[in-house]
Amino acid sequence: EVLEQLTVELKVKSGKDGRLFGSITTKQIAAQLDKINGIKIDKRKMELDDAIRTLGYINVPVKLHHEVVATLKVNVAEEA
């Protein structure tokens, strides 16, 4: 329930049309979640089909237990 309430914000450099220089991985999401909220989650528990390559909000399923899946909101914003 705590994860469902959170939004992890990552600031990155982007080019035209909101495309990122590089991509956002589950490792970066897990590191930011730990840094800001103090919640440690193994990056392998995040079920992201492919790395994030665009700006905006993305819902990332997190498998906490074999029957429990939470949805973590990730906001990829442009770095000023």
Features:
80 residues; 2 helices; globular; 5 strands
Describe this structure in words.
The structure is a single chain. The protein is of the alpha+beta class and 80 residues long. The strands form two sheets. The chain has a three-stranded mixed beta sheet. The chain has a two-stranded antiparallel sheet with strand order 2-3. The mean pLDDT is 86. Helices cover 20% and strands 45% of the residues. It is globular, with a radius of gyration of 12 Å. It is built from two helices and five strands.
Number of helices: 2
Distance between the termini: 32 Å
Gyration radius, in Å: 12 Å
Structural category is alpha+beta
**Number of E strands:** 5
Strand order within the widest beta sheet: 1-5-4
Regions with pLDDT < 50 over 5+ consecutive residues?
none
Dominant shape: globular
> What is the mean pLDDT?
86
The residue fraction in helices comes out at 10-25%
Strand content: over 45%
Q: Sketch the topology as an H/E string, one letter per element.
A: HEEHEEE
Largest β sheet strand count, sense and barrel closure = 3 strands, mixed
SSE inventory with pairings:
Blueprint: H1 2-5, E1 7-12, E2 19-24, H2 26-37, E3 52-54, E4 56-65, E5 68-78
Parallel strand pairs: 1-5
Antiparallel strand pairs: 2-3, 4-5
